Amino acid sequence: MKILTAAQTREADAQTITNENIASVDLMERAALAFTCWFENKFLPRQSVYIFAGPGNNGGDGLAVARLLHERSYPVKVFVIGDLTNASQDFQINHDRLPAAIAATPIVSIADFPSIPERALVIDALFGTGLSRPVTGLFAEVIGKMNNSKVCVISIDVPSGLYTDKQTPSEGAIIRATHTVSFELPKLAFFLPQHEQYVGAWHTVPIGLSPKYIAEAKTDHYFTTLEDVQQLLKPRRKFSHKGLYGHALLLCGSLGKMGAAVLAARACLRSGVGLLTVHAPSVGYSILQTAVPEAMTLSDPNRRVLSKLPDQMDKYSVVGAGPGIGTERQTKTVIGQLLATTSLPLVLDADAINLVGSSDRLKAQLPRNRVIFTPHPKEFERLVGKSKDDYDRLENMREFCREYACYMVLKGSHSAICTPEGEVYFNTTGNPGMATGGTGDVLTGIVTALVAQNYTLKEACLLGVYLHGLAGDLARETVGEISLIASDLIEQLPKAFRRLAPHQDLAR
Ligand SMILES: NC(=O)C1=CN([C@@H]2O[C@H](COP(=O)(O)OP(=O)(O)OC[C@H]3O[C@@H](n4cnc5c(N)ncnc54)[C@H](O)[C@@H]3O)[C@@H](O)[C@H]2O)[C@@H](O)CC1
Ligand SMILES: [K+]
């Protein structure tokens, strides 16, 4: 699904109004109703609701929500801030529509800010996508009070003060929402780690924005949904044999880090690969043979670290390299040979990324359109360099992927997948329980297995990252976030695959 800029969102609003021949206040009513339905499902009408409305259409939404919640028996109090003589037309209309029981109290100085009871709910309707400068002055003071209120704050459309598609200057005050309820689509800002404290948990509610406009809108930013990845999953053929599903080679492990190889190998096997060979330092031979009997194991001449590429590289369909390999000189040589001599697709993770990042010579050897990097933020920094902020990091990722014609999975709460064309796809599965050792090794195994099965590199990234997060979400249901370990993801992979294709096994 596409992510639109603030300007595109305004255009989508405008086109919806024109195409459907409705007044803008009718679209506002739809938006307010969608928000109210979400709210009703979440909170009972026992808690009093304090709504703070600014002078634009976001404030107009707040006033319409006040009326709708009042009709549903919520005790509502409304406060309006700003120069109301310049308020938007739809704000005015909704101001006039407020029932007599709700008096909109103006806040003209911070002394007018009400005391908010402990169990109240606060709705933030100060600014939305029309924010045109950093929030300062009285608005900033109001935001400060709302942020210090220690109650649940729900932002309409956007946390007020946050630009949705570019860096917000540091002098601007921003609401720290508990929930943000966005109209139709999430905003780019919601996917960036630096905004976690402002956005809180985000949700989207449909308001029927023009599908035609959305379909035609140009963007480089997307988020992946269940429907998107379901379309990618290929059913297995009836007359199947293991040769159809590729032969993956994993270069993993070193003394003390054989667990990484075991995790990557198990995940690879659970992701449908036809055959798997793991090449590891000789210390890992019996470990792998015992822990992963389904995989073939090749023993490196070196006991502790990888020192040599296996023979007959052309019999494999893909190489996944990096988990647990360390950064010793011999291993660097192996990665160099891998880049220079094979013509296979490569999934590079962990220390393979660190090794490439530490050497301009290795970078120069990167083959085009054949490499997927799966860094976490620190590995990303070693490979690509430092970034000023999360927008700058997105730009740097895009530039790197364009320059080296590679794919990148920047791991995080919303892992970001970048293509050589500079398109970025944010993943929507996963949870903080997955921030634990070994989950990255599992992802390497999954993505490697998908490439082996002839998924394109882009498909393997989108599908693999989604499944990895989904397995994490399923694991959370059984073990919770705190106790979750990487092996739990592997255990849940079968269920995750079946979630994507619920009827496939039954269809036979
Ligand atoms: N256009 C439409 O038809 C719809 C708009 N919707 C709502 O409207 C919002 C966008 O409304 P607007 O474009 O009116 O913009 P906003 O309501 O976000 O704010 C614009 C107003 O705030 C002022 N302003 C901007 N930055 C300021 C700052 N830093 N300090 C003080 N004042 C500032 C502007 O001068 C203007 O008066 C969306 O986020 C959404 O909530 C929804 O009702 C859906 C339909
Ligand atoms: K808002």
UniProtKB/TrEMBL annotation:
Residue ranges annotated for the YjeF C-terminal domain, each copy included: 225-500
Residue sites binding (6S)-NADPHX per the record: 57-61, 128-134, 157, 260, 324, 376, 441
A Pfam entry, by short name: Carb_kinase
Residues covered by the YjeF N-terminal domain: 9-215
Residues where AMP binds: K411, G412, S413, H414, S415, G440
Signal peptide, first to last residue: none
Keyword ATP-binding: yes
Keywords: ATP-binding, Isomerase, Lyase, Metal-binding, Multifunctional enzyme, NAD, NADP, Nucleotide-binding, Potassium
EC number(s) per entry: 4.2.1.136, 5.1.99.6
Cofactor binding description: Binds 1 potassium ion per subunit.
Cofactor(s) of this protein: Mg(2+); K(+)
Subunit structure: Homotetramer.
HAMAP family: NADHX_dehydratase, NADHX_epimerase
Family under the similarity heading: Belongs to the NnrE/AIBP family.
Summary of the function given for this chain in its UniProt record: Bifunctional enzyme that catalyzes the epimerization of the S- and R-forms of NAD(P)HX and the dehydration of the S-form of NAD(P)HX at the expense of ADP, which is converted to AMP. This allows the repair of both epimers of NAD(P)HX, a damaged form of NAD(P)H that is a result of enzymatic or heat-dependent hydration. Catalyzes the epimerization of the S- and R-forms of NAD(P)HX, a damaged form of NAD(P)H that is a result of enzymatic or heat-dependent hydration. This is a prerequisite for the S-specific NAD(P)H-hydrate dehydratase to allow the repair of both epimers of NAD(P)HX.
The protein, known as: Bifunctional NAD(P)H-hydrate repair enzyme
Species this chain originates from: Pontibacter ruber
Higher taxonomy: Bacteria, Pseudomonadati, Bacteroidota, Cytophagia, Cytophagales
